[in-house]
Amino acid sequence: MAQGSLRPQKTAMLVAQRIVADINRRGNVVGDRLPPEKAMLDAYEVGRGTLRESLRYLELQGVLSLKPGPGGGPVVQEPDATSLATSLTLLLQFEHAPFRTLAQARAGLEPMVARLAAEHVNAEQLAGLKASVDTMREHLDDQNVFLAEDRRFHELVAHASGNAMFRYLIDALLWMLDSSAIGLDYPEVRRIAVHKAHLRIYQALAEHSPDTAAAAMAKHIDEYGRYAERRHPEALAAPIVWTTV
């Protein structure tokens, strides 16, 4: 790429990068307050408007929360996949991509994630997965509990993979592909089938069998896709739009 084609970064973005670098350098943790505004203005040698734009950007990314009033100011937060999901949603909306795009992405990603999870899962993570499977079984008559545990199980598998990129991608996909948001419903017979699939995946993870875990996850996601295509093709064909859920 020619030097002349590079887009100069806004000062506010550069300052935001310096703020994050300083958070890491100081070893700040969630809940820590950053220096007061005057100290930050002196340190970064920018105007008040530029600094506040930088802080607002970091707030939108989930890095900071801005506490108003005396004793307030920027406080370190732990980012999650929400900002990634929002960015992906906007990109896909402008591509006029359907929700089917997300289902296809899950079919490609989640078996790989399950394979990694079988290799890296620890005892604490297995306990969490078992608790999710058991809770789903005990509340098969409650679709709200079912949906919550369905999402939690897949998040736990992604976290057990040991790969931060996959963890955030799966979290973002699940946020975007919220069943209640796109109108999918699960009759009890389908909930029972999902519970059995989760149990098979859990057992493969507990045995630390990558091939079995990947195959079980692939079958589970394929069954989900077939069910959605058969019962709710209009939901999968609907365009992805940025909404709050």
Show unreliable segments.
1-7
User: What is the strand arrangement across the widest sheet?
Assistant: 1-2
- CATH topology of the largest domain: the name is Four Helix Bundle (Hemerythrin (Met), subunit A)
Tell me the major beta sheet: 2 strands, antiparallel
How would you describe this structure to a colleague?
A two-stranded antiparallel sheet has the order 1-2. The protein folds into two domains: 3-76, Winged helix-like DNA-binding domain superfamily/Winged helix DNA-binding domain (Arc Repressor Mutant, subunit A, Orthogonal Bundle); 82-237, Four Helix Bundle (Hemerythrin (Met), subunit A). The two termini are 40 Å apart. The chain has helices at 11-26, 37-44, 48-60, 82-94, 100-120, 123-138, 143-160, 164-176, 179-182, 188-206, 210-231, 233-237, and strands at residues 64-67, 73-76. It is built from twelve helices and two strands. Pfam families: FCD, GntR. This is GntR family transcriptional regulator. Keywords: DNA-binding, Transcription, Transcription regulation. Residues 9-79 form the HTH gntR-type domain.
Question: How would you summarize what this structure contains?
Answer:
The chain has 245 residues and is mainly alpha-helical.
